[in-house]
Amino acid sequence: MSEVFETNEIAYRSCILYEAVRKTPLEDAYKNMKEVKPNVEYSDFEYWYYRFSNGQHDLKHDRSKDPKSLGFSDMPIDVVDNIIGYLGLVDKLSTRKVCRQLRAVIDKQSSKFGDVGLTIDEESCEVCYEDSTIEYSAVENENCLLKSPRKTISLKGDDWMMALEEFASVITHPKWSFQSVSIVISRKDSHPENERKLLLFFNSLLSNHQIHVDSLYMNAYSFESLAMLLPHFKTDTLSFCPLFPLEDTQENLFEAILKMDRWKNLTKIHIDRFPDGFPIEALFHVRECDVRSVELTENRLTKIRDILFKTPTFAHFEFRDEKDENREDLPVLIDRVMGAHDAYNSHDKVYRIENSKDYIQISIKGPRSDQLDIRRIRS
């Protein structure tokens, strides 16, 4: 039966006419046609289906005599520019590949997109563009399997190198900015130099670029990733989650980070664990800060009281305390350190700011009373 539809064009069109007259939905009609003519092209089927649906039932119609329809590239350039301005990131990436003219229009536009991310772990590498994901995974014979919503293909090369090149080519576009960029590197191979090799390659791809992003999220095994990549990102907000505590050999890295202009220009910081042995005042230049793990020693609380409270930019800090077993409970420690000044009211947990109507509201939260919440209340 299928041979008839392959060789007899009238029989093929008759089946489409039958479906169109019965008002079978296009997608269902196409599936039915695929059962008897597996190699039917969707664009050709769609043409005949809509022609018949509009009452034009001539089975012998010569399609080549149809008036030439205007394509997208035939539109005035200002109309094309306006239409492309409404496209999302994934659609713009696809449209750039159509022709040089469209690519030039897209590349001239300043665009801001949503969330993009790169994840490299033991199993695979993922590049996420808003709601679309591209996965790269290593297969045998040094090949890489690429899976996207539109295709699955086998490529020659390293999965992580391809993922990094793909991601870098997008975020370094000089006219593009993003709401957030997420970089997660959790591939801990047996050779310690492998992560450094990955970082160096990624750093080389980002060199000479300034990436504009509202919020940067990084998750990696070491502070080396932050020290190496932060200079490339112009951002107000940083979230950093080191998978392991800072090692002694990385102390110079943290010191280098604190001297960076990119660090000094941050207004919000979220950090999973604050390294022991480093000054807590390294965080005091930002407006908002959230530290999920830090030992609140008497020395650190004293610096919060004497330095942070006097900082004009300070608005809200939150710390989750990792209490040493020999130290008193956080509420007791807070009252003792803050109570050393008359400006503190232990009953209301309020610290008055000298020569100002503003005050600091201190709260102890959490089921274990281990979360210190500090807010500047402006009058």
Descriptors for this entry?
single chain; 379 residues; alpha/beta; 16-stranded mixed beta sheet; 14 helices; 16 strands; 26% strand
Q: What does this protein structure show overall?
A:
The protein has 379 residues and is of the alpha/beta class. It is 34% helix and 26% strand. Among the domains are: 64 residues, no CATH class; 35 residues. The chain has a 16-stranded mixed β-sheet that branches. Pfam families: F-box, FTH, HTH_48. It comes from Caenorhabditis brenneri. This is F-box domain-containing protein.
- Uncertain stretches of 5 or more adjacent residues: none
Rounded mean pLDDT is 88
What class would the helix/strand composition place it in? Answer: alpha/beta
Report the C-alpha radius of gyration, rounded.
Answer: 30 Å
How much of the polypeptide forms β-strand, as a percent range? 25-35%
Number of strands: 16
How many helices? The count is: 14
| N- to C-terminal distance | 84 Å
The main pleated sheet reads as: 16 strands, mixed
Query: Which oligomeric state applies?
Result: single chain
What order do the helices and strands follow? Answer: HHHHHHHEEEEEHEHEHEEHHEEHEHEEEE
Helix content: 25-40%
Q: Based on CA inertia axes, which overall geometry fits?
A: elongated
Domain F-box: 69-116
InterPro entries: DUF38/FTH_CAE_spp, F-box-like_dom_sf, F-box_dom, FB224, Mos1_HTH
Protein name: F-box domain-containing protein
Pfam families: F-box, FTH, HTH_48
